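A reminder before we start the practical. When you read a complex entry, don't treat the lines as separate problems. The point of joint prediction is that each chain is placed relative to the others, so the output describes one connected object in space. Small molecules and nucleic acid strands, if listed, are placed in the same frame. In the example below there are two entries. Take a minute to note the order of the lines before looking further.
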Amino acid sequence: MRKVLTGNQAVAYGAMLSDVQVVAAYPITPQTTIIEELADMQAEGLVDLDYIRVESEHSAMAACIGASMGGVRAFTATCGQGLFLMHEMLHYATGARTPIVLANVNRAAAAPWSIYSDQTDSVSQRETGWIQLYCEGNQEVLDTTIMAFKIAEGVRLPAMVILDAFFLSHTSEPIDIPDTEAVRGFLPPYDPGDLWLDPDNPRTFGSICMTDVYMEFRWQIQRDMERAKQVINEVQDEFGRLFGRNYRQVEGYQSDDADIVMVVSGTVASTGRDAIDYLRAKGERVGMVKLKTLRPFPREEIMAALRGKKKVAVIDRNFSPGATGVWAQELRSALYDLPEDERPIIYGYIAGLGGRDISVKALEGIYEKTRASDRPDDIDMWIGVNYV
Amino acid sequence: MKYTEKEVHVPLCAVSTTSSLVNKTGTWKFAQPLFVDRVSPCNQQCPAGEDITGFMYLASQGSYEDAWRLIMEENPFPAIMGRLCFHTCEEQCNRGEHDDPVSIHMVERFIGDYGLANGLKVEIPDQDRKERVAIMGAGPGGLTTAYHLRRMGYGVSLFESKEKPGGMMRYGIPAYRLPKDILDGEMSRLYEMGVEFKMGTAVGKDITWQSLDNQFQAVFIALGAWEEAGLMIEGITKKGIFHALEFLAEINLGKEPEIGKRIIVIGGGNSAVDCARASRRLGAEVTIVYRRGEAEMPAHTEEIEMAREEGIQFLFLASPTAVYGEEIVTGVKLEKMALGEMDASGRRRPVPTGETSDIDCDGMIIAIGEATRVGDLPPFISHRGGVVDTDRMGQTTHAGFFAGGDIIDIPHTVTHAIGSGKRAAVAIDRFVKGIKGEEDSPDLSRWGDSGNVSLARLKGSSLFARRNPSLEVIDYGDMNAFYFDYRPGIKTKKIPVDERLNGFQEVTEAFSEEEAISEARRCFNCGSCTECGNCYIFCPENSIKRDPDGYGYVADMEYCKGCGICVNECPRGAMKMTFLEY
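Here is the predicted structure of the whole assembly.
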């Protein structure tokens, strides 16, 4: 079935098709229409879920953790300030090994107040142990939401589906909605094994751990996050076989023979495809790599994709004050281990903060700047900033 | 990837191998919660000592018969109370600080009418006690004492000089406030309970105090206040001039007093308003003349309001100094008054100004107060100007003689009389049985230190379960009102003025069942556990459980760590924290 859906509706359809059992959420623009849509679906009897009204995002995540520990599939959605407020509970969800799925609509951080898109909210959660899956379009949003449950439950770690505010959340596209039974075949009901709050087998979860075992629990998170790289690929492959749409953690676009590769994430990838087509038509040997996962970081895949390239232009719609854009940090860290003669020069660009548009023209400018110099001017370069 | 040579043998997340019951968190506490039933302000305020909190809860659950029985533990006349009582409970209602006070009297009236309509009966013991008690006066005080003593198994003889029981309820209150069939319905239960009514028997004339003392183990005196204060002014003996009680008695016996069509009522109390409203129903133009201002009127505001609706005029700061007319009154000379300093009653004293005016009339009613007929009192008990000296429970200075109602130092209302009758019944029971102990003093069964005694509390069992009852009164600030929504009260409806003036039909319309239950649900049940379960839900240590033996919840002290969340989340303030001493 095809429908014209906004990105937020696509998230709701994904959650509905995943037979989510508990939703606990707090409204916040531009996320609110996700949970509204789910509330409507529940009211219309399209999905059998318990909807928990809470007083904050912190409580929303706490309620999801409780629900997930109760052995059911839990979902929430938030953005920007809401995700920041959730931060403490995000760590907890990981440690409690609750495979919650959260849809985060990327929204810039206050102050100054903004409801528009950038990735600062989600990249700020890099160390919480959540799988992070960035989306380029509304179809990918819907498909990723379904896959996120399977990935999260497969490694018993929580997962975030991330979409750009307004560029996706409030923009409509024709979407192919998978068949309910087919999705059920792909995503069976959540099986918590024996780790859940079983009233017939009362146990205490998450109480204090002494120095003798704390590191072991943390080690297991890292082991399973590493394993997630493989699980994500398996899930994406299975999804592709069943539904005909293929997703990769690292997806190249005309990058095989390119000298210069732009590395992008989120909706910038779709603008990037146009920019690459335009530049290729002019005869430039340029390509693009779209990154879907920030965590686990697909280190091995990215090394393979960029090995031997001359220059890599990383476009970060986020920024870590005092350091650089987060994707650039990750790439520098991963590519440093390449042999020196196969190691590309990394150009870090900061663009599109607070919802500012990253146009084809802006990407063309980035390409030109990268091509024209032997070394970057600075460790990061801010695009389109009107310096005072 | 290899992080270690060996597989680590820990589960995925930190989980105990046994339940949390091994963790006796009770050892952490320095404070602990106590389930304690506190007194609601309405219960404390009720002069009759009714369990308002309790009957409102039972009514809210649709258990009307239980609600009726709970009222009947304390007060034999719920249908009368719902109409006559000036419901000062509602002025104290904690809900008044939230939105509107609960309309307690209208729910009580509904419950009382339910009891009458369904012919509900009160049980009395199978076996009568051998002791007998004499009750002098069949007004609300005497009837109440008779009722409670019968329920305790005593033989009761009730002596009354009038033809029918009810006292002021029958002879003083017009039918538009209390229909006679309601009064008779409530009275008939006392006949069924085996009270021996000796009507038309006046003490001192038909029977002597000494003979009562000899024949009965105790005597309760509730003769009422039938001595009317008179005006010592020129021309006061003319025709067409009545005293309030004499006028109201004629009305209530269905007679038409010989009075004119332009009537002046002198006085500012409830009797004055009753006389004015009754006269209006006889087709008269009525003016109430009062020597102080409206704010100083002792009459109930609602009564004044209805009088005004019915077209009654008010003339304040005026006092009669002479009556005009040949044989029949034709007018009154009034002196203008001013308000001076506060008097003993806390109201500003009227001060004559010397300025006079005349007002025409062809009838006049004097309603300036009533007192005890001192000559009717037994000579051997102490009194001050007809106000009989008693202790808190009604014991007079003469052993075995008790007093209540309008002859003791309490406000002259039906409800206060009923309350005094109940206290006397308790005191008489203790006197006959020779109980004197301080330990089981009835004061411990009061609704708060200043409240009346509750027979259900004294008995220790009630249709509305109360746990660990205390004398503490709970105010709005002690509750967690976050749990209560905002919902205005249901306004009482009155019949249109032209219908009212057509006769003596009841003015205030009854609540429908829907309205009564809706209003009963507005009650916070302040200070009482209603098993809402908040303590159970919020306890982080699962230490709160349903009481396996009865009502409500218990806290397992092995696990309670004394955090106090349960107390904080109790909407009704039926819990409190107590600090432990180590």
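Discuss with your neighbour: The radius of gyration of chain A is 21 Å. What might explain this?
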